[in-house]
Amino acid sequence: MKKSLFILFFLASIISQAQILQPAIWQYELSTGDYKVGDKIDLVFKANIDKGWHLYSSDFDPELGPMVTTFIFTPNDSYELVGRLRAINPKKGYDEIFEGDYTYFEGKGEFRQTIKVLSGQLHFEGNYEYQVCTDTDGRCIPFDEDFSQTNFGLKQVQKKSEVEIASKDIKPTPSTYVEEGITKPEDKSLWAFMFFAFVTGLITLLTPCVFPMIPMTVTFFLKEHEKGGNGKQKALIFGASIIFIFTVLGTLTAVLFGADTLNQLATHWIPNVIIFIIFFVFALSFLGLFEITLPHQLVNKIDAQSNKGGMIGVFFMAFTLALISFSCTFPIVGSVLVLSAQGEFIKPILGMLAFSLAFALPFTLFAFFPAWLQKMPKSGGWLNSVKVVLGLAELALGLKFLSVADQAYHWGILDREIYLAFWIVIFGIMGLYLLGKVRLPHDSPMEHIGVYRLLMSIITFTFVLYLIPGMWGAPLKALSGYLPPMATHDFNIAESRGGIMTSEPTNICEEPKYDEFLHFPHKLQGYFDYEQALACAKEQNKPLFIDFTGHGCVNCREMEARVWSDPKVLKRLNEDFVLVALYVDDRTELPEDEWYTSSYDNKVKKTLGKQNADFQISRYNNNAQPFYVILNQQEELIIQPRGYDLSVEGFAGFLDETSRRFKAEEAVK
Q1: Which of 535, 540, 667, 549 is nearest to 608 (CA)?
Q2: Confidence check: pLDDT of 194 > 70
Q3: What residues form DSSP beta bridges with 9?
Q4: What whole-number distance in Å separates Cα of residue 627 and Cα of residue 641?
Q5: Is residue 410 a contact partner of residue 284, using CB atoms and an 8 Å limit?
Q6: Sign of the C-alpha dihedral computed for residues 435, 441, 446 and 452 taken in this order
Q7: How does strand 108-117 pair with strand 79-87?
Q8: Do 553 and 504 sit in the same domain of this protein?
Q9: Of 38, 237, 455, 501, which has the fewest beta carbons less than 10 angstroms from its beta carbon?
Q10: Model confidence at 331, in pLDDT bands (50, 70, 90)?
């Protein structure tokens, strides 16, 4: 087939205003022009990034806060997607504000999407969202752009305004960049996940379904060896069979669900709620309410195959072990597979490989070193205690998935303090259980506790004590990745003590629109709708302070935490201005009669965020946040707008100078 590499440059609009920036220019191409129907090839997107700017990648947790690069392909009959989008060798950093790892590109960035060719005339169209940030002056700009390519002919992109924002805005400050010498973006998280899967495999061995099987199974191989048979060889085959069985399970999960489906588990409320229910059911099973078992007929049929002898018999022995231990292993195996949902296609496979390696290891080692069997602890009630502790842990961890859905859709059912209350109670019960103060139906009587159990209870209660200050707003940095954001916390004692606000706010005329889900920091009061705020500013004869901000804008949060929190700044904001916060990334869809077509890019603006973003760029020729604008009653600038600057004195001076100019204007009138 005639080679036809196609390259499309996303041409930046010629913008006369210096404030409107386009720090990243894109092109795309096929990985090969020599293809035929049925082949799998890569669609390659490349970005050339201006010096001093960074582009966020696509392969970190979107719940962290930064805007993840996202590609959306409009389906057609010329191709189908295979797997998920891949970021090629991004750098890694740590964000101190959102307290988590993220990935990004400097200079050049590359993303690849594998496709299966269904037609000789390939054509593509879709949309992608991304964000570029600079660590020099606090600017961070999100973009939302269309791409279109028909029959490989060059076609200019219908480009959206840089400020049509459909996701979060964040800016890493210079101190947050901690580059690591990692060539593959998934290495760190993948190795950490495999380690987690390996540890869970070891924990599974301590459950009452599995632990008693170790000496029974190993004894069989030892007798084979004493008879002059190949017992050690069979033990190796037995261990390899266990690894094979569980790895096949991981492979089936990856194949049946696919990487795209698994990736959706991290972003949509339905799978997150379903996963929470699964964890809840697993927890109840471990706590002894019921057992998850397979049909006895199936287990008996597989067990019968193990009597055939030879290597096939050994394989079915391993299969029988997996089935017999199903009620204990399934909740843990299921949890590992669920937690692999945010990974690549290969993650469930490698997770099960690591899990099964730990699971199979003792059976093989004890067969080679039989003297170790004498040192094994005897089975007893402690095995059920392991199940109960695991059940309580799964109950706590399952809340994370419900929290993801709750935050994304503003349900407000699992705010930070409610989440912490659940954890404090759950782990408090775990500590009491370890001390023998709480007993469940399947537990054996306990006259005393052992040293290890005492140490575990000490660790558990220490964790509970660590959690308790969080109920009053302590940041609990070690758990930031698991807890809901601080913005959902109703009472923050640190804010109250630093805050500062000793008098009732005087800059509100009527109930603000959207205040059921949008809020100001430090108990400040204001509006989230420009027209409503302007009317109040005219009524009170005060300057209108506009805060162009975003839900995930780290610079905005830094300004609020380090500058706005200062008493003299808060006093000025509270008393001298009418405030309006315009969130440029809010996805709230407005009534159809409020939609309009932008004069800047001729796109219909349907959401609150897109309208606010369009207002910023069309009125003030700026598309970065934070951006502070102060107007008089005639909607004229009183002072030049101000951006990201952590100088408290500078910001207070900015407010004071504005007040002075406003009063001078009023005096002239």
Answers
A1: 549
A2: yes
A3: 27
A4: 7
A5: no
A6: negative
A7: antiparallel
A8: yes
A9: 38
A10: low
